[in-house]
Every structure is written in C-alpha cells, then in structure tokens.
Write a structure and sequence with these properties.
Number of helices: 15
CATH topology: Rossmann fold
Radius of gyration: 21 Å
Strand content: 5-15%
CATH superfamily: Alpha/Beta hydrolase fold, catalytic domain
CATH architecture: 3-Layer(aba) Sandwich
Helix content: 40-55%
Distance between the termini: 28 Å
Order of helices and strands: HEEHHHEEEHEHEHEHHHHHHHHE
Length: 414
C-alpha cells in the first residue's frame, strides 16, 4: 500500500497530546512517557486519504460504565474494579517489616547500587504511612475493563471524551511501570476545555496493561513479545469500535508502537514514541558490543553513538538479567523491599531523584507516585511475568530502526 503524507490535523493534535504527556510526567522516573533521554521523535505512518476525519462515536452515559462494541467483534468486554483484600495489604506490611537488611555499602555514593539509607527510608514509609487504597480509588474512578485477546485477558482503562470527533489514542506504559503512570493525563486529554484547551483537541483514551503486567493476564507459554502485543492493541482498538486511531508509547511502549508502525494495520493514523528506534542495525550492534565508534560519523553522530554505548554498558544491567535469565529473579517476587530496590536501580538520574524524594525533598513527584507502581507489581505478583518480556525480545534491539519509512511518510522532531 502506498503511503501518503499524514493528515496535518492528526499530527497537530497528536503533537499537542504528547507535549502534555511529557509535561505532566516530567520528573516522574517510572513514567515511560517521560524517559526520552536526548531524543524525541514523532513518526507518522498515514495510509489514508488526507481529508480523513477521526471516526465519531455516539456518546452516552453507558460508555462511562461499559466499554461498548460498535464493530463486528463481539468478544465480551467485562467491567473491572480493583479490590485488594485487606489481608494482602497486612501481609505486605509484615514482609516489609521483616526485611533482613544487608550491611551498608562501602562507598559514599551510588556506585555500588541503591543505598541502604534510601531503601530503609522507603521501607519505613511503605510499612507505616503509605495508603494503597488511595491508588485503588484513583483507578476505580475511571472505567476499567478486561477482554480476551489471542487467548489472554487484557486489562485496560477506557475513557471517552464528551466532545464530538475526539481522536482515539492508545497509550502504552513500560518497565518498571503500569497504567498508574498515565492517570494524570486522562483528564487533560479527554476534557481539554477544563484545562484551558479547545474541544477539537480532545481524545478518547485507551490505556492497556501490557501482558504479564498489572491486572492483565500472565502468559503461560512463550511468544508474547512486542510484535504480538502490537497486533493485540490493534485488535483492542477495533473491538472498541475505532476504525482509526493513533498510538503512543515510551520504554517498552515505544518498542510496541514502533512495531505497530511496521505492521501498519488499517486505521492506524500515526504513532508517537519518545524512545525512538532510529539507529541503523550495524551502528546499534557496534554500540552494544562495546566497539569504538565507526569511522565516517559526524560530530553529532559520534555524540549519539557514545550516549547509546553508555546506555548499553552502564544503564541497562537489569535488561541483561531479565533478557537472559528472568526466572532466576525469585528474590524480587518474594521480598517487597527487594522488588523496590530492583525497580529503583533503573538508571542513575531517576535514582538520584528518588533518593532526594525519600530524603524529604520536593522533586515533582511524591513517595506515593513511586510506591504505587511498586505496590501494583507486588500485589499482582507480576515481577517475573513482566521481566519475561525482556527475554522474549532479547537480541532484537531497543534503539535500532525497525524498518525504513515508506516514501511520503514523515518523521517530525519537536
């Protein structure tokens, strides 16, 4: 199918949405929508008439309670509410309090990993002050659903805008993460007039939990990699009755939306990724191997290569562990403090920010923001099922270009 330039209105509205996502999530280290490092890319794959308008669905009060079918797929969509038994919360607090602590690191910085003082401060707050019910209430204030796709239950939030011609948008989280990362963007995107925006900027928003994460089902056999998830997201949007939509993701969500662009399902107007796959395969492979920068690179390209190599060498130790031996990580499934420390050790910059938060400083996020993501992983026992996504995709590259753009498609830098 020949690609044509994207609809200008679609690009403008998508760009507005993602500027808002980045603004709201700024400084939130577990927010996959904020971890853009030094790159940000809008890649639009438009295969439709340039006069195409977003498909309009009739709004009704029922849509706030039941996700309606308007397409031919009549697979059940079941309402979902979070209700964690109090006994599980009591057991979580007991396990935190019973932590067997190691001795302190032998350095005065983070070079040996997550520092004992930070971890103990987190544990004290988690065991004595943190209130999971607040997060639970925020989740239950939004319409949540479960539907089976390709043999697996998929959990998702679906909020329809009250405004006509709202553009359907599916937003995908990453690791370590969950749908709670995106709760702050729901209001501004679905009801922009309440936040100083215009009605024509409105979106219908769908926020699914990646298979093996949060309240989605856990795969019981191999094969649920990003490619399969990308196909599942298109099934989900079509099942909800959307004949056209846009997609956004960061971290694993970025890989998934990249592959949605590659698969090019009918109706996908554009993707936005803030962890773009842009490096040629040979460059990406060289950086991964630790080789010196290839000859012939410009000064800017050398800087990009060095940063990419730094990420591979110093920034994704967790990715190697989960990519090669995820099942070995029994400790993070058994110890809540072990899980928390593992999640905090994502990258140096976010860890420094988190350490300051638990030291009492204000950093644009709260202790609850950090613990909500950790707690949802603990309560759903998805530490290892989430880790297996790295194993599924190991060796295929995170930052490499997934394919060349067709003539007429656009890449836009903000």
């Amino acid at each position: 199918m020949t690609a044509v330039p994207p609809n200008k209105k679609t690009l403008q509205r998508t760009g507005l949405a993602l500027r808002l996502i980045t603004f709201i999530c700024h400084g939130y280290p577990f927010c996959s929508s904020a971890r853009s490092l030094s790159w940000s890319l809008v890649a639009a794959y438009a295969r439709h008439d340039t006069n195409h308008k977003p498909q309009t669905r009739k709004k009704s009060k029922a849509m706030t309670n039941v996700s309606q079918h308007t397409g031919s797929d009549k697979t059940p969509i079941r309402p979902f509410h979070v209700n964690v038994p109090e006994a599980e919360l009591a057991e979580l607090r007991r396990r935190i309090s019973a932590t067997r602590w190691p001795d302190r690191e032998t350095v005065t910085d983070q070079t040996q990993g997550v520092e004992l003082a930070t971890t103990q401060a987190l544990a004290r707050y988690w065991a004595t002050e943190y209130d999971w019910r607040k997060c639970e209430a925020r989740l239950n204030a939004l319409p949540q659903f479960i539907t089976e796709i390709d043999g697996l239950d998929i959990h998702f939030i679906h909020v329809s805008s009250k405004h006509d011609n709202a553009l359907p948008l599916i937003v995908t989280h990453g690791w370590p993460g969950s749908v709670v990362e995106q709760l702050k963007i729901v209001g501004p995107l679905t009801d922009p007039t309440a936040y100083g925006g215009k009605a024509e900027d409105a979106f219908d928003i769908v926020i699914p939990s990646i298979p093996g994460y949060g309240f989605s089902g856990k795969p019981t056999s191999a094969g649920w990699g990003p490619e399969r998830i990308a196909r599942a997201w298109d099934v989900l949007m079509k099942r909800l009755g959307y004949t056209s939509y846009v997609a956004q993701g960061g971290d694993w969500g970025a890989v998934i939306v990249d592959l949605m662009g590659v698969q090019a399902p009918k109706g996908l107007l554009a993707i936005h990724t803030n962890m773009p796959g842009i490096f040629p395969a040979d460059i990406d492979g060289a950086a991964f191997s630790g080789a010196p920068a290839p000859s012939g690179l410009s000064d800017d390209e050398k800087v990009a290569y060095q940063r990419l190599q730094f990420v591979y060498q110093k920034g994704i130790a967790y990715g190697f562990q989960m990519g090669l031996r995820p099942q070995t990580l029994y400790g993070i499934a058994d110890s809540p403090v072990g899980l928390a420390a593992y999640f905090l050790d994502h990258d140096a910059r976010s860890y420094e920010l988190i350490a300051r938060v638990f030291d009492g400083q204000s950093e644009g996020l709260t202790r609850d923001d950090i613990l909500d993501n950790i707690t949802i992983t603990w309560l759903t026992n998805t530490a290892l099922s989430g880790a297996r996504l790295y194993w599924e995709y190991w060796g295929k590259g995170y930052f490499n270009a997934k394919r060349r753009l067709h003539p007429g498609c656009r890449e836009r830098l903000p």
